[in-house]
Amino acid sequence: MKVARFVDALQQIAETMGATDWKFNANTCQVETVMSDPPPSLSEKNVSCNCQFENNTCHIVHIELKRFSLPGVLSPELVQLRYLQHVDLAYNYLSGSIPIQWVSTQMNFVSLLGNRLSGSIPKELGNLSSLKYLNLEANQFSGTVPSELGKLVNLETLMLSSNNLSGNLPKELVGLKNLTDFRINDNILNGMIPDFIQNWNNLERLEMLASGLEGPIPSSISVLEKLKDLRITDISGTIQAFPNLTKMTGHTRIVMRNCNISGEIPGYIWRMNSLRILDLSFNKLSGELPSVISTESWKFIFLSGNSLSGDVPESILKKGTNVDLSYNNFTWQSEEQPACQTKDLNLNLFQSSPKENGLRAFRPCMKDFKCSQYSHSLYINCGGDDVQEGDIVYQGDANVVGGAAKFFPSENGHWGLSSTGDFMDDNDFQNTRYVATLTSPNIYPLYSEARLSPLSLTYYQYCLQDGSYTVSLHFAEIQFTNDKTYNSLGRRIFDIYIQEKLVEKDFNITAAAYGVLTPVTKKYNASVEQEILEIRFYWAGKGTTRIPEIGVYGPLISAISVEPNFKPHSKGGKTRIAPIIIGAVGSCLIFLALCVLWWRCYFRAKPGRKQDIKGLELQTNSFSLKQISIATNNFDPANKIGEGGFGPVYKGLLADGTVIAVKQLSSKSSQGNREFLNEIGMISCLQHPNVVKLYGCCIEGDQLLLVYEYLENNSLARALFGPEKHQLKLDWPTRYKICIGIAQGLAFLHEESRLKIVHRDIKGTNVLLDRELNPKISDFGLARLDEGEKTHISTRIAGTIGYMAPEYALWGYLTYKADVYSFGIVALEIVRGKHNMSYGPATNCACLLDWVVLYFYVLSFFNVVRIF
């Protein structure tokens, strides 16, 4: 063999790249190490010679030096190896640029994956006509993609992901007609996805994850019949229809995530026999899924974050492994669903049905769950076991296995997690990579484990006392290193949302902490309005995905702590309940009597209202006008949410984060004074789930203000027959729930409360709906105390025409049955979905009740119900 003359060249190449302890054996054509330390684990070295040349001359044709973290630069001396064909220097620590001298070689394979190479990609590479494989992924190349690369007519694989490439993809790339694999993920390109990719007729794999390119996905993609692996994510641009993929019968993976795709999922997608992975998450897809989906051949189905509706196919509910349907509009029939009975499914239905409001949306398999106790803090050790830090115990979630489509509700605390996504190309279909662990004396125990996600990770807490909180997110990068090896070259980038609001875009733990293995805490304010806190981490396709190995990317969180910015309510002991109730009722009676007495004296003496209302010892919380003005932004019209019984109603936010509704009495209303005092006197005595909660009032100057709990869904009247954009689609179970809730509230007022009260104005506008569509009776300005032993009260007529009982409207004959009559009218409105007064002469009916009576006599009872 005659290789001696190349020994010196190879030795010089090795030294230029930083391999000073290597020797080349000319007899065996192998690299030998003379260093005292063993080579790095997982390192690969291979130098191959071909001795079939003239006169049995051997030439080096293959150099592979992977995972050695070589610290030097690429050597121009490779040109001396003029028969060299294959160079693989992946996973090193090489810097500098690609020597332009390389173009004079016969190389057909070049992999420089996972180094520190920078500068522009040399346009001269377009002259390396023999090149079939070029991998420059995970470096620091900048500038544009050279148009000269379009001359590489033999090129089959071009991988440029995870660099800083900008500009458009040059149209000259149309010449790459032998291309089978093209990847351009994680760059800062601009312009639209080019149409010329339709000319890559041999393309089998296309990746454009967070490339910077804009949509829509070109329709011409449909001609790529050989395409098996399609991945396009996180593109901006206009909303588009589902791309035509009918000719791509060999598809094994389709990922079109966050691509503004609307409409229904085409039926042919579910009939693709070779398709194993489908990810259409975070689009605008609607419609229903097929009634039957064969789940046996699928590895992953991700449909999170769309508007899919209808029933979840029973085949998924029974056998759906690694299926994520979270954040959609599906129908939940009952907690007896098969998915609720099968505990070993990796099926995520977290917030999969908006009709299931509040806690049911977070825990879909829990029947009629209600918070028996409210918390005001939370501490989670993400990915680890329970850990105590000082006096605080961080609850662990280490027992949560998997995460591709995982929904986990904690059993010992009011919190849980939802995880979505599969780590790409790691061949781990058992989902074992969702927790990272680092054993090191140099890091606190709280940061030695962390939970990971390849796409979306949500932590939530429910039964949380409403108010303002500080959310502390604890991070430490434990999968990269801080040494001069390829393990330190990874970039983890993700987004953070709190209460559905983006608080961090392109968050990088290492940059925030100024290093790896270094704890960093990010603090955010969060307002909890409906007893639920939601924290979500989302991977938008940015950062490296193959360092230190394939599948290391996506959100990483070490711990979460949630603490109140207010003084939490104290917990009363059971033995004190009776005295508290007696005292409260007594105070209410005394206060109500004072209200009546004061009102009579005040308005006899003063016909107008020019002075402050003082001298009345209020038995409810008192707010200053300044507090309310700040809360409502000085009664900004934008915060106005309706009109109450005697004035406008505004939404406000107190300093402690509590969301409120403020009812303002008209300054010209002397009648309103009486109703104002009456309402305080009545409602301050009442505590019931179906009666609106009064926080307090403000009496200052000409201002009379009542401060209530804020109810998200406004009034029943608006939900039923308000403007179309405000109407709610109430199914029959919800309508039934609302009727029962109103009835329970009235039963409390009439029979269960220590003060027996007749409301006198039950109607749709005086029934408010909370986030879970529970009804709450409001507006007690016209309410009267029931005088116990009397069968009825003769009183001044007050109320709303159409809702007053005849005996009361005609003769002032008032009993609690007047409320029952009004409730009956409201129940008819709920069932019919029509306003009581929406009838007239043209219908031969004066009101809804007339219509029901008319049809009841013309038809049968069941036919009337059927018309409803």
Automatic annotation (TrEMBL):
It is found in: Membrane. Residues 635-868 form the Protein kinase domain. Its main location: membrane. SMART domains: S_TKc. PROSITE patterns: PROTEIN_KINASE_DOM, PROTEIN_KINASE_ST. The chain crosses the membrane at residues 577-599, 842-862. InterPro entries: Leu-rich_rpt (IPR001611), LRR_R13L4/SHOC2-like (IPR055414), LRR_Rcpt-Like_S/T_Kinase (IPR051824), Malectin_dom (IPR021720), Prot_kinase_dom (IPR000719), Ser-Thr/Tyr_kinase_cat_dom (IPR001245), Ser/Thr_kinase_AS (IPR008271). GO terms for molecular function: ATP binding; protein serine/threonine kinase activity. This is non-specific serine/threonine protein kinase. It comes from Carya illinoinensis (Pecan).
